[in-house]
Task: structure prediction
Amino acid sequence: MLSDASGVAIVAIYCILMIAVGVWCSRKVKTASDFIVAGKSLGFWVFTLLMFGVVCSGMSLLGVPGLGFRLGWSTMWEQLFVPLSISFCIIFYGVKLFQVSRKTGYMTVQDYLAHRYQSEKAVRGLSSIAGIVVSVIYLAGQYTAISIVLIWLFDVPHWLALLVGATVVIIYTVIGGLYAISITNIVQAAMLVVGVVIMAPIVLSYAGGIETINLAMAAADASFVLPWTTDAAHGFSFEYVVSLGILLMVGLACAPHVINNVIAAKDVRYFKWVPFVTFAIYAVIMVLLKFTGFAGFTLVGDGLVTLPDVANAKDYIFMLGVQAAVPNVLVLSLFGVIVLCAVMSTTDRLMLTIATTCSWDIYKNMLRPEASDRDVLLVSRIAVFASGILTVLLVLNPPSILAFLIWMGIGTMLAVFAVPLLAGLYWRRATKEGAIASMVAGLVAAFVFGVISQYSIAPLAPLPMHFSFYALVCSIAAMVIVSLLTKPVSNDVLDMTNTGFYIFERKIL
Amino acid sequence: MSHVNMKHMIIGLPDSTFFIVFGSFAVAGCLLLVWALTFRSDTNAE
Result:
């Protein structure tokens, strides 16, 4: 065991603090709107850090360095595109959704899709089920990260690590909803930023500095210092980088746990600076994280770090780098807390998203329209609890294809949500039938191309681009063809939902 | 294994890699600044 009683105390203090914040925020939760969208009252910094926190996950802290260590500089594009996903979300989805939601009272992005396409059952139902499935898969990946960190620190059994992590997040999310998530997120994001800004340079310095690291990478394989490679086995090719950019910027931006936050902001004027501020903060953090992965080349090469004998050994590189550079129990425990911050800031929002979809979209809008506000609030809380338990059970015996499922989840977000959303917001000819066709085509194509990519099925494999790109093309084709063949949505609805090729609401003269 | 010209280096990287990667970050940052500076704060959202 790396840590001792003091480490347990640090993690315990953090967990108690999160629950205390949840209890404090629970006083504000009186209605379903308070629980689901924090009364649409999030201020500038709360909203900014919420957007940063939900995207910056356990995968950022563990997977980003791991990928850098495995493939070098061609993976640096991930550090550009992930921060840009928040900017894309706010600029291309957020401004319009916010404006329309203030006119119509939307609580979720499914509200928008159902209204825009005049389809309370089919479009709302399809998008809700896709959102729940994708969120559960994503959630499973986050819980796996919690387990990795707690096992590394305290050598506890996998089930105990999951139980501790899940219990804390479930408690504060059940009692405080989005209020608790957004306030705990301030603490989590602040600790994450400060922790990475302090610890990453320590690891880099211990590894000999960035120049030494780059030279070591170039000596190992010149492909590692190229912006893209010609050989997929040695890094990301140019075509793959392009498809990854579309997947992350457009696809991650419309993930339900990300996009729903824009409805909870207090003022549209926040959207002026949030894209730049989140990009500036997140890009610095992401680049530092990637550098710690690069540091693995000298740390492992010089024998300063030994990778564990596990399947995802390279994902341990940042943790092992900190452990080698600062072998101090308190520092390691604090590092563990920082990873927990990253994981929990995403996990809580994912659980709330699943719960909201169940309570608001499925229960209230599809099954029982006469349900009272109090019923919706109760179902939301039960659904948070159930989603947490369900995911823990799923991760107790993680499927061997979990990593594949997570990538499949992100790809599915792009294939299922992006086209109906973008077409709905910007193309007046997009119809209900087109939206359904694009969702179904995107879902089927994501599955087909995902399996071809994962299992290298000839003759199509290896695919030169990320599999989600092909699914996106199928989704776009289905939307365009079917929409043009079917009857347009009425102009009243299109005007009400600000549909057209513009971002800002046009003033009626 | 790829061959790269390591004669011109910045922080141990081929300068083409350095400029392409960090230039992209700079361009993205500038575009977001343009968005912020041209944002119409008089939009009638409420």
